[in-house]
């Protein structure tokens, strides 16, 4: 059964995977602040920031194509704003807006792909993120697995009923019965989630799923933390914003 590919990346033997989640989250925050405070991204800024993302991909032994594909998922959200800016005559601002969204999304994908979700949530909680927010993130993450499992069951059931080839079956589900299939998927997933929640309450669930893991900052964590913050600050202060 195929689950989230990003979860498989976290088990790769990369150097980035072994680092403390708090260091990675702080470096990610510094990177996002750096990207967000540019008035307009210049070519030099894009190359420098892209170099940091590429370094994270290499250190985490992540597939560059997979990271890029998932970063492009923000295009439907940033794209309309970029198009609107371009139509108003601000082409440079449109390109800058799109690159800002893509770089930010790629950085988030790298950190999430190099950190197991329980450790990432533990780091968020340690850094002071609201417990309710951490809990919502963890439930959403687990719900994605539930949706994936139910979708796989529905696809296999459709194929076993003689729909035809694998690609033909997918086309029929998507184009001929997309609304009904999605409705059944969410109904089944909701029923499964409700049953899981009742089981959690019966086992003593009291509002926290984050494991009480002891986090320790090692020399490599401090080196990564200082290097990430320094490089982000150097890019922001050393590269001029576009006018």
Helix content: over 70%
Whole-Å distance between the termini? 51 Å
Tell me about the largest β-sheet: none
Cα gyration radius (Å): 21 Å
Low-pLDDT sequence parts? none
Order of helices and strands: HHHHHHHHHHH
- Domain unit count: 2
Total number of helical segments? 11
Structural class: mainly alpha
State which percent range the strand residues make up. under 5%
**How many strand elements?**
0
Overall geometry: globular
Query: Could you tell me the mean pLDDT?
Result: 80
Core attributes:
243 residues, mainly alpha, 11 helices
How would you characterize this protein structure?
By secondary structure, the protein is mainly alpha-helical. It folds into two domains: 5-125 and 214-238, no CATH class; 130-202. Helices cover 73% and strands 0% of the residues. It has eleven helices and no strands.
Secondary structure topology:
Elements: H1 5-9, H2 21-36, H3 43-59, H4 64-71, H5 75-87, H6 91-113, H7 117-126, H8 131-160, H9 166-175, H10 178-202, H11 219-238
Helix pairs in contact: 2-6, 2-11, 3-6, 3-11, 4-6, 5-6, 7-8, 8-10
Offer a concise description of the structure.
The protein is mostly helical. The protein is built from 11 helices and no strands. It has helices at residues 5-9, 21-36, 43-59, 64-71, 75-87, 91-113, 117-126, 131-160, 166-175, 178-202, 219-238.
């Amino acid at each position: 059964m195929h689950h989230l590919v990003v979860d498989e990346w976290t088990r790769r033997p990369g150097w980035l995977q072994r680092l403390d989640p708090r260091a990675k989250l702080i470096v990610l925050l510094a990177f996002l602040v750096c990207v967000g405070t540019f008035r307009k991204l210049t070519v030099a800024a894009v190359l420098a920031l892209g170099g940091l993302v590429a370094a994270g991909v290499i250190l985490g032994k992540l597939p560059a194509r997979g990271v890029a594909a998932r970063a492009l998922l923000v295009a439907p959200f940033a794209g309309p704003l970029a198009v609107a800016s371009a139509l108003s005559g601000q082409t440079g601002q449109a390109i800058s807006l799109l690159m800002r969204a893509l770089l930010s999304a790629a950085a988030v994908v790298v950190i999430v792909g190099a950190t197991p979700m329980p450790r990432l949530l533990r780091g968020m909680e340690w850094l002071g993120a609201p417990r309710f927010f951490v809990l919502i993130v963890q439930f959403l993450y687990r719900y994605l697995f539930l949706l994936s499992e139910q979708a796989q069951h529905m696809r296999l059931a459709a194929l076993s009923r003689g729909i035809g080839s694998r690609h033909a079956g997918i086309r029929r589900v998507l184009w001929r019965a997309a609304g009904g299939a999605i409705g059944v998927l969410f109904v089944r997933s909701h029923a499964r989630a409700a049953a899981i929640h009742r089981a959690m309450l019966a086992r003593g669930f009291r509002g926290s799923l984050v494991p009480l893991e002891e986090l320790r900052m090692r020399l490599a964590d401090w080196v990564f933390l200082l290097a990430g913050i320094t490089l982000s600050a150097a890019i922001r202060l050393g590269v001029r914003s576009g006018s």
